[in-house]
Amino acid sequence: MASASIYLNFSRETEEAFLFYRDAFGTEFVEPGFYRFGDIPAGDNSPAMDEEVKNLVMHVTLPITGGMQLMGSDVPPEMGFSKQPGNNIYINLMPDSREETRQLFRALAEGGTIEQELREMFWGDYFGSLRDRYGVQWMFNCPAKE
């Protein structure tokens, strides 16, 4: 596999969440940035949408760390989608240094809930976990000693 990505669905807060993630990781969106449901070409098979749905995010891609990409979309019920929040996904980050680990941990923890403070673990990694303000769960495993 040449690459991997993580795809997140939100009810109506994709843009807000991805602006937060952009700032946390200090990266920029893959051009052209936010695709909106209103960008879907009109045609016989195009669903009717009100203005609120047209402005929601259909797709966005943000490079994060180590060649990984975070992708996301709003999943409006008006378009036949259903978001089921759950606790079955963590995004595992393995930063190159403890300094980078602490920086990302602090940024993503803002407004969220720290589950496990960063600390040295028995398996030798510097580890911590949190749930960010959007309910996304993150784990940090840093094997670097500095």
List the helices and strands and how they pair.
Layout: E1 5-10, H1 14-25, E2 35-36, H2 51-54, E3 57-63, E4 69-74, E5 90-93, H3 98-109, E6 113-120, E7 126-131, E8 137-142
Parallel strand pairs: 1-4, 5-8
Antiparallel strand pairs: 2-3, 3-4, 6-7, 7-8
Helix pairs in contact: 1-3
Which keywords apply here?
about 150 residues; alpha/beta; 2,3-Dihydroxybiphenyl 1,2-Dioxygenase, domain 1; 2 domains; 4-stranded mixed beta sheet; elongated
Give the SSE order as H and E letters: EHEHEEEHEEE
Class of the largest domain, according to the CATH hierarchy? Alpha Beta
Terminal residue distance: 30 Å
Largest sheet: 4 strands, mixed
Structure write-up:
The protein is α/β, with parallel strands linked by helices and 146 residues long. The chain contains three helices and eight strands, in the order E-H-E-H-E-E-E-H-E-E-E. Strands 1-4-3-2 form a four-stranded mixed sheet, with helices on one face. Strands 5-8-7-6 form a four-stranded mixed sheet, with helices on one face.
Describe the structure in brief.
The protein is an alpha/beta fold. The protein has helices at residues 14-25, 51-54, 98-109, and strands spanning 5-10, 35-36, 57-63, 69-74, 90-93, 113-120, 126-131, 137-142. The protein folds into 2 domains: 5-78, Roll (2,3-Dihydroxybiphenyl 1,2-Dioxygenase, domain 1), CATH 3.10.180; 90-142, 2,3-Dihydroxybiphenyl 1,2-Dioxygenase, domain 1.
